[in-house]
Amino acid sequence: MHKWRSEEQGILVGANTAIRDNPRLNAREWHGKNPLRILIDKDLRTPLTHHVFCDGGRTIVFSNKEIVAEKLEVVKINFEKNVITQVLYKLHERNIQSIIVEGGAVTLNNFFQLGLWDEARVFLAQEKILTEGIAAPVLKAAHWQETKIKNDILLTYKNKDK
After folding, report:
1. CATH 3.40.430.10 is the classification of domain 2-117
2. Which of 45, 134, 144, 157 has the most CB atoms lying inside 10 A of its own CB?
């Protein structure tokens, strides 16, 4: 995962994932550059002490509010309109051409429903079964490949409409 992160320009999550999981969104376990951290947080609910704002990396937050903080760019968008297309347009304006969307489920589903994805990677743990949490989105992709990685299975889906 960290190698993949180092190969992309940005990594995107929604506010619920940022708040609940407090992810670092960097490539700390692989040599290479850290991606730009991208957060969709309508009401700026994510505490500024969370990892997405710390650790020296740059973060862009898409919100309907404004705030000034070091190494943080807040981009105001209209949440009454299509959020994902606005985010992608604003990223394109900044010459961000490749992103990993790490979730959560609502954010991933929005990308899938709009067909705005090229590839999805899904890990299936063979030794640990999660019994709680939010269900993963269901992909309707015709093209997929299965790869064994250690004790897990990686399913790689390709968007059949691309």
Report:
1. yes
2. 157
Read off the pTM: 0.91
Q: List per-residue pLDDT tens for the chain, 162 residues long.
A: 889 999 999 999 999 999 999 999 999 888 889 999 999 999 999 999 999 998 778 999 999 998 877 778 999 999 999 999 999 999 999 999 999 999 889 999 999 999 999 999 988 887 777 778 777 787 776 678 999 988 899 999 998 887
Provide the residue ranges of all domains of the chain, joining segments of one domain with +. Answer: 2-117, 118-162
